[in-house]
Amino acid sequence: MHAIWFTADTHFGHKNILKFSKRPFASVAEMDEAMVQRWNEKVGPEDLVYHLGDVALLPPAKLRPLLDRLNGRICLITGNHESAALACADRFDWVKPYHELTLDDPDASRGKRHIMLFHYAMRVWNASHYGAWHLYGHSHGDLPDDETSLSLDVGVDCHNFYPLSYEEVKAIMARKKWTSPFALRV
């Protein structure tokens, strides 16, 4: 089985993101190269990557060759900066505004892990009260993590500009202090 990865907010080609998100790169070219290298260090050619939005802010003609250098099959959950990515939509397995993912996982309830993928953070989501996870981007690490919520910012700014594997997300979620609301009933 091929690995599954999650990421968001790469903002390839976006000069102002260096300042806005205090990214530690001297130039956009350095940022883009570092992110391509870090992506490909982890993601294999046949792996599946869920990109949760804001791929790039640059002309589609410049984005296309950059996307072609990235390993893996990419599914795109649209963010608020997607005009270039949408012009290269055929590079993605699919493009959606939201996706509910179900994975086989023997450690999950009934052997199935339910994950809500959306660009924006939500306080509640489908099956959140049953332990479904929510992965998001958009906030660039500025939204404090809630250890009592099974939600996680998978944006590159939070994870040293690397995508996160399903196993890495699973380990982070295992450390959270979430309690089912049904457990609180007497």
TrEMBL record:
Recorded superkingdom: Bacteria
Family matches, as InterPro entries: Metallo-depent_PP-like
Record's protein name: Phosphoesterase
